[in-house]
Specification:
Four Helix Bundle (Hemerythrin (Met), subunit A), 16% strand, alpha/beta, 45% helix, Rossmann fold, 14 helices, four-stranded parallel beta sheet, four-stranded antiparallel beta sheet, 3 domains
């Protein structure tokens, strides 16, 4: 399998540190506000990637952290509520979003406030190695002690804007960053040998990844906006303590999801909330849309594009239901396309093994769907198609959880016919009730010249 490595800016062969096992750490949210579809793109992608690794028989140790103490959380809480209340609300929201989007729960979901001991010990190591220094407001990492600072982001260290990230005049170098912030009035704090306070943002992931994945691990990922300063700073403080080798072998970053060609963000107030989307589209459609563009390509959000993705997805699902109905009813034809189906499936896997090229994979999935819809498949071909769709669902999680049986189809059609009879009797109260109940179950009634026909919304 070949993957693009942000560190080298090249596509490389992926070779895990330990054969058959993959350690992967993805930076989670700072829990001070609701997650939006821009965040969802990152976590859907890494869930899809994890699923593909598991499809390839890797044992994946998958970590997503929750940052539950931060300046933004304290500011959100203000004087009217506890900071713990804020982080609890938005942590629950994030997990709800993951569950709705069929994102598998990580192996471990570490919270910063549950790992203060590991963070304090990590900072103490940096102090012992003289990598940090003390100012009035906290401890700062001295970037001049790590000669390779900037190797991940390729940042220009002479850029005057670097100092604005943590604008403290007393810093030794513009890019230096806080690893520990000393106690302030009315703010939460923890005891540490070097002074009461709380951790800076970047130190937490270095400490928690070491706790759950060891000093060196395979994959570190997140959104492209994390390359600098977050991941650059993590790398510096972690790698300066290593005797040899890289802290992380492979860095992966997901491109922005934009709206009107502008990065979607809370600060710009141009984001699309998840409730708004779930009210209209199924989680499977949203996943299908978010994976339709290659992960390193910007995806510009429009409802028109989402609608078109839904239409493409529905074609695939109609093919899936056609295959299921053939299997259930044993209504097989004479077209032997088993070799063609296997060929297209192999093309999907080849596309994914080459830096996870989902747009190319979608092309071959569409070819498979067309075969199932436009041919009278024989029994072997139908079985192969069913197996192929099931394997693809294990990777993409795009098939609906609900599969309609023949009996349910007959019952739905009977109710649609009954609704028509009530309409003829002008009992619209009853006909509307039947329509609403069917709609709740994902069944749409189409009124045709030949009478009502039920359509299973997928």
């Amino acid at each position: 399998m070949k993957l693009f490595n942000t560190l080298s800016r090249e596509i490389e062969d992926f070779k895990p540190i330990q054969s058959g096992k993959v350690g992967m750490y993805v930076c989670g949210p700072t829990t001070y506000d609701k997650s939006h579809i821009g965040h969802a793109r990152t976590y859907v992608f890494f869930d899809f990637f994890r699923r593909f690794l598991e499809f390839k028989k890797f044992d994946v140790n998958f970590i997503i952290n929750l940052t539950d103490i931060d300046d933004k959380i304290i500011k959100k809480a203000g004087k009217n509520q506890e900071w713990q209340t804020v982080t609890d609300i938005y942590s629950r929201y994030f997990i709800w979003m993951l569950e709705k989007l069929r994102i598998k729960m990580p192996t471990t979901f570490p919270r910063v406030t549950n790992h203060m001991q590991e963070i304090i010990e990590f900072i103490q190591e940096l102090l012992d190695e003289k990598k940090v220094y003390t100012l009035d407001d906290g401890l700062y990492f001295d970037t001049s002690t790590f000669k390779e600072y900037g190797k991940l982001s390729k940042v220009n260290l002479s850029d005057k804007n670097i100092s604005k990230i943590e604008n403290v005049k007393e810093k030794r170098n513009p890019a230096d960053f806080a690893v520990w912030k000393f106690k302030k009035k009315d703010e939460p704090y923890w005891f540490a040998p070097f002074g009461e306070g709380r951790p800076g943002w970047h130190i937490e992931c270095s400490a928690m990844s070491k706790r759950y994945l060891g000093e060196q691990f395979d994959i570190h990922g997140g959104g492209m906006d994390l390359i600098f300063p977050h991941h650059e700073n993590e790398l510096a403080q972690s790698e300066c303590l290593l005797k040899k080798g890289n802290w992380v072998n492979h860095w992966m970053h997901v491109a922005y999801l934009t709206i009107d060609k502008t990065k979607m963000s809370k600060s710009l107030k141009n984001f699309i909330g998840m409730e708004e989307l779930f009210d209209v589209y199924s989680p499977e459609v949203i996943r299908f849309y978010l994976l339709s563009a290659h992960y390193r390509t910007q995806l510009d959000f429009t409802y028109d594009k989402l609608k078109k993705a839904k239409e493409q997805w529905e074609k695939i699902i109609r093919a899936w239901y056609t295959v299921l109905q053939r299997m259930e009813n044993k209504t097989f034809g004479g077209d032997d396309l088993s070799k063609e189906i296997l060929h297209e499936f192999d093309h999907v896997i080849e596309a994914l093994e080459n830096d996870l090229k989902t747009p190319i994979a979608y092309k071959y999935i569409n070819f498979m769907a067309a075969m199932a819809l436009s041919n009278d498949l024989d029994e072997t071909s139908t079985k192969y198609a069913k197996q192929a769709f099931e394997k693809l669902d294990a990777i993409f999680a795009f098939l609906p959880k609900k599969s309609w049986t023949k009996k349910e189809g007959i019952l739905a059609q009977s109710l649609a016919d009954m609704r028509e009879q009530f309409r003829e009797l002008k009992r619209f109260d009853l006909s509307d009730k039947i329509r609403d109940k069917l709609t709740e179950q994902g069944i749409k009634i189409e009124d045709t010249k030949g009478g009502p026909k039920v359509k299973f919304e997928v």
